[in-house]
C-alpha cells in the first residue's frame, strides 16, 4: 500500500490529535495485503480459462468451439459459452457469500485479526488443490476453499483498516485495500502471460498454486497484527489497553477525545444483541440501503467482466493467446495507477466527486465499446486489429474510471457510515452482495454475450447511468468525519432526514446514556 506519503501529516478530524505513525502504516500494509488474494484470484481465473492447454484438459467442449471443427459454425460471441466453465469461475463467490455471513460473528466475537487468520489459512489450502488438480472436481474444491477464505478476509480487512486509520486519512488508507486488489490482478496477469509460454502446457498449475504466496504472507503477518482499539473496548471494556494502543497508533498521549467517542460507541454496541436484526431498524435505513446498493452497483458496472474475462474477451475479438493476456496486463496497469491517484485525492476532493466523475467516465466507455462492436464485429470473421486495439484503449479508460471511484469506495463508504453496533453486520452485507452479484455476473456473462452480443455493453452502461444518479441525489459526503460522529450527515441530508429524523430523539438519548457511562469508565488524562 502506497501510504508512505501520508506518514508525516497531522491528524485532525473533529479535534482528534496525533499523526499517522509508522506503526499504523506497517499494520495496514500487512492487513491490506489481503486484497492481493482477491485480486490474484480475479486475474488468474480469467487468464487460465483463456489458455488452450487448460481448456483442452478440463473444458474440451470450449476448446473445440474455439479451435476445433466447430469453430467455423459458432458465433464469435458464443465461443466461450459453457455452463461448466461459468460454474468453475463463479462457484467461488457462492462459497464466499456464505462464509462472509459467518465471518461477521467471528469478527465481532473474536476480533478482526481472527477472521484474517482463518481466511488466509483456508486460502492456502485452496491453492494446493488448484495446483494439483487432475479433474474438474478438484478445481471446484479449489474454488470453494478460495471462496471461504475470501469471505473472511474481505469481511474483516476493510473494517480493520477503517478502525486503525485517523479520520482525515481513512480514505487513503482504506483505499489501499483496492490498490492491493489491483496489484493482485496485475501480478496474476503477468504470471499468466509468462507461464502460457511453457512447453508441455502445465503453466496453469503455476498460476493456480502461486495464490498460496500472498496468502502465506497475510497469514503469517496477521499473527503479529495488533487488534483495533474499537475491538479491544468492545471485547471486554478494557479502556486502559485500548488507550495505550490508541496512543501508539496516533503517536501522542492526547487521545482522550477519540477514546471517549470509542467508549461511547462501544457501550451502544454492547446493548445490541442481534446486529443483523438491528440493522433493519428505521434509524439505520440509510446505512442498510447504501450497504446494499453500493456493492450492487459496483458489480453491474461490468468491472468483473474485465477482471476475470478480459483475456477471454480479447480473444473473442480476434487477438491471439499472448496478445490477449498482454492486453489484460495493460488494462490492469492503468487501473493500478488510477488506484494510487484515488489514494492521493480521496480525502481532498471527497467521495461524491470521485464517484460522479468515475461514473461519467465509465458510461462513455461502455457505450463507445458497444458502438464499435455493433459496427465492426460480426458473428463470423475477425475484427480488424486496429479496432481491437481501440477497444483495448477504451477498456483502459473504463478500468481507470472504476479504479479511482467505485473500486476503492465500495469498501470505504459502507464501512465508514456504519456505527460500531452494526459495523460488522453492515460489512458482511456489503461483501455478501459483492459475492452474490459477482456470482450472477460470472454465471451469466458468457451466455449474455452470446445472446445480447454488443448490447451487453449498452446494458452495463445503462446501469452506470442509474448508479451515478443515485450518488448525485442520495449519497452525502463523508470525508474526514470521524466514524463515531457519522450520524449527523443523515440528519442534514435532504432525503434521509425525513427517515431518520423521527429516530433522532431515540439516538440522542442512547448516546447521552452511553456518554455518561463513558465518562464514568474512561480514565481522563490530567
From TrEMBL:
Membrane topology: Multi-pass membrane protein
Top-level taxon in the UniProt lineage: Eukaryota
MF-aspect GO terms: monosaccharide transmembrane transporter activity; symporter activity
InterPro entries found in the cross-reference section: MFS_dom, MFS_STP/MST-like_plant, MFS_sugar_transport-like, MFS_trans_sf, STP/PLT_plant, Sugar/inositol_transpt, Sugar_transporter_CS
Keyword terms, alphabetized: Membrane, Sugar transport, Symport, Transmembrane, Transmembrane helix, Transport
TM helices/strands, residue ranges: 20-40, 84-104, 116-138, 173-194, 206-225, 288-310, 322-342, 354-375, 387-413, 425-446, 452-475
Gene3D superfamilies, per database record: MFS general substrate transporter like domains
Pfam assignment, any one: Sugar_tr
Compartment(s) where it occurs, according to its Swiss-Prot or TrEMBL record: Membrane
Major facilitator superfamily (MFS) profile domain location: 27-479
PROSITE patterns: MFS (PS50850), SUGAR_TRANSPORT_1 (PS00216), SUGAR_TRANSPORT_2 (PS00217)
Any one Gene Ontology cellular component term annotated for this protein: membrane
NCBIfam families found in the cross-reference section: SP
Assigned protein family: Belongs to the major facilitator superfamily. Sugar transporter (TC 2.A.1.1) family.
Descriptive protein name: Major facilitator superfamily (MFS) profile domain-containing protein
Organism annotation: Triticum aestivum (Wheat)
